[in-house]
User: Fold this.
Amino acid sequence: MNEELVSIIIPFFNRIKQLELTLESVLNQTYKNIEIILINDGSTESITRIKKIHESHENIYLIHNKENLGVSYSRNIGIDFANGKYISLQDADDEWLKNKIEIQIAFMKKMNIKFLYTAYLRRNLLTKKTVKINVPKTYKLPYIAFKCKIATPTVIFDKEICKDIKFKTNIKYGEDIIFWSEISKTTNLKGLNIPTAIVNVSEGSTSQIIQNQREGYKNLNNSLFDQNSLISILHYLYFNFKLFIKSLVEFINV
Assistant:
């Protein structure tokens, strides 16, 4: 069977040891027609070991940003550079199950899908506890902006659907959901409840998590609903109520 080329985009900033594990999981894929586009986003750690991996694989490209420009800027570079029919996004600190690409590409071809996300395994790096996160069968606006379970390392999409869509480089939180949302205006986003990735998380402070979520919600509101005041108001009320409850729970547990 002919295998279409899949371009895998991995921006990274330091955390080289974890990146090696990530790369190993990508190189061990059962689907072999891949190219790996590494974007070094101004790392200050030595990347000698990554260079050695790059030099020993003809299908690995290594691009260097002159300074730390952010994950969105780096992903845009990767998408522009990609030669594949399909784009697969991977975070530098997560891992893939070995048949991830094979499962997704086969399903996409069979069902004529242009954008597919999947369930994933969420692993706490401190407790080592792993939980499967299931996903809805589809996402559409405006629902995706209220509650989105799409994990970036599970996404594969046909490159042609994002030729006029870029990740927003001027925001830090919520940029991925905004990108999915823009694509959803012209393309169906489909989900598959088979885990294909391990998403590693570490426990941050609850207050910092809430602050990051608040900024993310504001970015979604400003980017997606500036022309629809009713949905903008509903979205604003929703995320403020949600974050109020989280803050209240934190206060009670202190």
Remarks:
- Residues 6 and 34 are 5 Å apart (CA to CA).
- Helices lie at 16-27, 48-55, 71-81, 100-111, 143-146, 175-184, 206-224, 229-253.
- The two ends are 58 Å apart (CA to CA).
